[in-house]
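As the next step, I needed to go through one protein, both as residues and as discrete backbone shape codes, included below for the reader:
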Amino acid sequence: MTNTIRSVQNELNKILPNLVTVSTEINEEDRVTYLVGEYYSHKFNKLMRHEEILENNNKVFMMFFEQRVDYMMATAKEQIEYNGHPFFFNESKNK
């Protein structure tokens, strides 16, 4: 599991340098292990989390962050002023 965390963290650091912290958590009710990505949102002024069930292939987890690179790399001012979904951030800048 440590290798998975390290591998995913390294991949995320390539596209979002030091913006996401990766860890795992076990849901005590169903004993399922989740891959957790924590990042700070200037828009909401708090730490946010994204969780996915830990799998051999964590493409869905990575896609969540890949789709939000432009938003997460934007300045605090840009994030705060943006009123759309983070997925569409780049499209709004190109208008």
Observations:
- The chain has a mean pLDDT of 90.
- The helical segments are 2-15, 59-66, 69-73, 76-81, 89-93.
- The longest strand covers residues 32-41.
- The chain has five helices and three strands.
